[in-house]
């Protein structure tokens, strides 16, 4: 079993207990807005975060649809919130949920295995998709070489090739997806795709590439089509792809939608929920519940859905969950230097695309680790940093109803810089 959650009750004792820091009058600022509630003791750095964010989160800059929160990762204590329980479109910060689920269910070292099986007729070879979004042309070549050797050994030089992508159901739009999202923002989700190639039918594309490699290995391919392999059919070749950790990394750094949706569906299948959108949603909820987390409403793994809703507090707590003592191994990628985009340096927070380049945020270059989120009228930033008190703070800021302009994104960079204490 996981270690019991060590987040402490909100109160003076909570702040005193954090990493052994004493809460003397010179070190802490008591805040008790309501005499009927316990006094909450904030460190000076936290008090500054509260004051600065209160001043800087303005309607003029962020509009009226805003949710935000800052949480002390060591205790789970809420440092600051504005409309913290209001669920808004989270866009690609949804991928933090997908990453949490994939790393929790599979572990970062797990690899998905693509196989080639023999069909019911001796000249049939079936490429069976595992849903692996990292499946590569190098793997196709290796599978073909092994398969060709096996077929020649059995006296077969002419074969029929089939793609088995039945691990996933026929592609469809998720709840809240615009029809334009395919192919503009993602491909149809299928269990076979090579090198992330953008094709209307990635499974048949994979079968054709496999057939071409078989031809290069001396076989004649008489047919390419779609077909299902029997569960107990003889296996001719296998190939393991990248690790889950290696799949999660580009999903977070570059906001890869295909990786996200594949992992979303694979988690559902692995946990026994099934392979449909609705079943994947149920699996997503179940994993969050296991982690004692919640989501207002989610319908996919990528965050493309316009029906998805997460609040600032939900996102900040999802991020803080990675720092839980019981999660130091499985969710360590979310805390690593390579796990999330780094302010002004990597992924979707690179300076070359305008992130952390203003006078308000350049002081935080290299100090913020966060997932971005962007839809046409939604911008979000959720992640972690080390505050002025030397303690990890997780945060989330989400804006809806405004054009997703660079200036709006830079406004969220400014709020993240505020959490570090450098601005």
UniProtKB/TrEMBL annotation:
One of its GO terms (molecular function) is carboxypeptidase activity. It comes from the Bacteria. Keywords: Carboxypeptidase, Hydrolase, Protease, Signal. Residues 1-28 form the signal peptide. Transmembrane segments: none annotated. The keyword Hydrolase applies. Belongs to the peptidase S13 family. This is D-alanyl-D-alanine carboxypeptidase/D-alanyl-D-alanine-endopeptidase. It comes from Pedococcus aerophilus. The gene is dacB_2.
